UniProtKB/TrEMBL annotation:
The keyword Cytoplasm applies. It comes from the Eukaryota. It comes from Clytia hemisphaerica. Keywords: Coiled coil, Cytoplasm, Dynein. This is Dynactin subunit 2. The keyword Coiled coil applies.
């Protein structure tokens, strides 16, 4: 709690009595010297003396501290949003039969009890893994939600002032959302016939249905008014709506995303943004002008080189141009001779081809003649042999006839 001192947990420390401090030597003279010094110091015109109300300062900063667990002052790049010191307040529940609670203390006590209920439900969730829970978490979630709605409908921050708006560093309605999410994660359990055990926690909550109904109707009417205002701004023309929503810059087809995109474009027309854009455009125009000038110089240099090459080529052909007419006359005179030479070459080619043909025919005829001579010699020899054999037979026949 806020009243604890850092050395209360140390052994052999008497925490029941008041704190007393001792110093060596005579303290009376020292205090008188300090008083005289203060009196002489306040007489100076260059020093402004102020008086601090310690009670008011203590009450203003009581039960408040800086949370540095999520502070990040580095220049590193990360997905998480960088935050500085978080201001929080510590609420204390006033004990029974001590002092009557004020409305502010009651409001803070209810917030503290909701925080404790959230932690206890976390413990119940861990216990459900090993044993069956005897409470009905669905009914408890409904009752907690109704209690949170009724507490919100009281609008104590308007009645008691901004001092009651602190919720221990948590936004309004977050506790009910956390409790509802925890309770929805619980499984439905059967009620036990033995009753609630001593370790169980029982909460009794009362609410008025008319408050919830009134809050619901007020929210519906507020949404209708907002929707009517949006319709008045946008209009009922479907063509205009389609033109606005079908913007290629927007990734979604919802009116909210389109409005956000239009707002982002409108922020560019801010004076600071316009000056930055104008400066960038001036720099861009300067770069474009330099590039165009360099491009013109390069094109002019290329054009000059081509013109010089053409001039050199024309000047080199001036000496040849005077000889061209005589050359044409000579070529026309040699045209007939060229035709005759062409005909002669064609005739010579024909003659050479004819000579080759005749040579081939003579070669074939020579081969045929050689074959005939060989066959004729063979035939003559066979005829001579036949004649000799015929004569020998005739002589033999004559001999036989003469005998």
């Amino acid at each position: 709690m806020a009243g604890q001192v850092k050395y209360d947990i140390l052994p052999f420390i008497d925490t029941s009595g008041k704190d007393s401090f001792e110093a060596g030597g005579n303290t009376s003279n020292g205090s008188q010297d300090v008083k005289t010094e203060n009196k002489t110091a306040t007489k100076s015109e260059d020093i402004e003396s102020t008086r601090i109300d310690h009670a008011k300062s203590f009450s203003k900063f009581q039960n408040k501290y800086l949370d540095t667990s999520r502070a990040d002052f580095s220049d590193s790049i990360s997905l998480n949003q960088k935050t500085g010191f978080d201001l929080r307040s510590i609420y204390e529940i006033v004990g029974e039969r001590v002092v009557k609670e004020t409305p502010q203390q009651k409001y803070q006590r209810l917030q503290s009890e909701l925080a404790e209920l959230s932690t206890e439900l976390e413990q119940i969730k861990e216990l459900n893994e090993t044993k069956t829970n005897e409470q009905n978490p669905v009914l408890l979630a409904e009752q907690v939600k109704k209690l949170q709605t009724e507490l919100h409908n009281l609008h104590l921050e308007k009645v008691l002032g901004p001092a009651t708006t602190g919720t221990n560093g948590v936004e309004p309605g977050t506790w009910s959302k956390q409790i509802s999410s925890h309770l929805k994660s619980f499984n439905d359990t059967k009620s036990s016939e033995e009753g609630v055990k001593e370790s169980g926690i029982v909460y009794e909550m009362y609410y008025k249905p008319e408050h919830a109904k009134f809050s619901q109707t007020s929210k519906i009417s507020e949404l209708e008014n907002k929707l009517k205002a949006i319709e008045n701004y946008v209009g009922k023309d479907t063509g205009k709506m389609q033109t606005v929503i079908s913007d290629p810059d927007t990734q979604s087809a919802t009116l909210m995303d389109t409005t956000a995109a239009i707002h982002a474009k409108l922020t560019l027309f801010d004076v600071s943004h316009i000056e930055i854009i104008a400066a960038r455009l001036q720099g861009l125009l300067h770069c474009i002008n330099e590039i165009s000038q360099k491009k013109e110089t390069i094109e002019n240099a290329e054009r000059e080189t081509k013109i010089n090459e053409l001039h050199q080529l024309v000047t080199s052909w001036e000496s040849v141009a005077s000889v061209v007419p005589d050359l044409i006359e000579r070529l026309t005179a040699l045209r007939s001779l060229n035709d005759q030479a062409t005909n002669f070459s064609q005739s010579l080619d024909h003659l050479s081809s004819t000579q080759h043909v005749i040579r081939d025919q003579l070669r074939t005829q020579k081969d045929t003649l050689d074959k005939y001579e060989k066959s004729f010699a063979v035939n003559v020899q066979s005829i001579q042999a036949n004649c000799a054999s015929l004569e020998s037979r005739i002589t033999e026949l004559m001999k036989k006839v003469g005998s």
